[in-house]
Amino acid sequence: MSKTILVYAESRDGKLRQVALETLGAAHILAGDGDSIRILLAGSNITEATSTLTSYGADTIYTIEHDDMDNYAPDAYMAAVQAAIREAQPDVVLFGHTAIGRDLAPLIAASMSAGQISDVTAIEVEDGNASFTRPLYAGKAFEKRVFQSGPWVVTIRPNNIPAAEPSPDGGNSNIVDISYPAPSLRTIVKDVVRKTTGKIDLAEAKIVISGGRGVKSADGFKPLEELADLLGGAVGASRGACDAGYCDYALQIGQTGKVVTPEIYIACGISGAIQHLAGMSQSRVIIAINKDPEAPIFKVADYGIVGDLFDIMPLLTEEFRKVLV
Q1: How far apart are CA 255 and CA 158, in angstroms?
Q2: Cα(210)–Cα(207) distance, integer angstroms
Q3: Nearest-5° angle of CA 276, CA 280, CA 281?
Q4: DSSP letter string, 51-79
């Protein structure tokens, strides 16, 4: 029996986020012959993002554009997603496991009387039956879950599911503008001040370079920022560095901060407390730089360098610059 999959494609400042393409990639994994993939794109400036999505092979792209969605407001976005659900009548709704996705998904699941599986890192389909893998206990264990009945709501962790690729034929999506049923907003976001100075979103960065108390000061992050700029990565921090006032809490990675799964994670002057490991232990390659050879971070690192980060980071940056510039 054919099913309809609705993908919520997240955008920011008019541009499509990488996690939107990864969520669409999850839809392609789940879709079988005769299944329909549909996309919802909602916001206040979505022309560029809509143009990008048309080449990715979805059957239909629903668009909702309104000033209410200039900044994220739960009531506004909830109304937009529900409008798309009324149009599509989906069997599966997919979100990215982002701040917005984590907020919207349970609201939508409750409104649909649907089951929900969150923070999915892998999807397997065998004989038409799908199973979803998600981490437990800060990544120390994994479980596989299945739905016994529909509909389904699923959130996809960034940097885990391969992103969808553009269709070779350029795509032929049907774009449908949906009327926005403006709700009575209980809260109105007037402005958003982003404290992080990074050019790349931490959750989506392929390379993350993080500093801990070992950076010693705010200026101690400069060597990390220099290498991150060279490699096209993002800078993160441990809670210890944030608590010490070396950087803003927007950069915090760990159990009470952001969870990242980059291809390369470089930990500089980070001891490796369990709370920090909870936010980065699923990185594909972990490189640790620390003066203490007994630091716990080396137990999870694929590569370790024992030494002073202020001696090592300039050398690394110099060597990478020889290759990349």
Answers
A1: 16
A2: 10
A3: 100
A4: HHHGGG--SEEEEEE-GGGSS--HHHHHH
In whole angstroms, give the CA distance from residue 158 to residue 260. 8
Q: DSSP state, 33? A: T
What mean pLDDT is reported for the chain?
91
- Partners of 176 in the beta sheet? 62
What average pLDDT does the segment 154-170 reach? 89
Based on its alpha-carbon atoms, the radius of gyration of the chain, rounded to whole angstroms, reads: 21
Tell me how far apart the terminal alpha carbons of the chain are, to the nearest angstrom: 54
Give the pLDDT of residue 170.
65
Whole-structure pTM value: 0.84
CA 93 – CA 24 distance, rounded (Å): 11
Give the burial class of 233: count Cβ atoms within 10 A of its Cβ; 0-12 exposed, 13-18 middle, 19 or more buried. buried
Distance, in Å, from the CA atom of 151 to the CA atom of 158, rounded to the nearest integer, reads 23
DSSP 8-state code for residue 253: B
What's the pLDDT tens digit per position in 59-113? 999 999 988 888 888 999 999 999 999 999 999 999 999 999 999 999 999 999 9
pLDDT band at 198 (very low <50, low <70, confident <90, very high): low
Q: Other C-beta atoms within 10 Å of 122: how many?
A: 16
The DSSP bridge partners found for residue 37 are 5
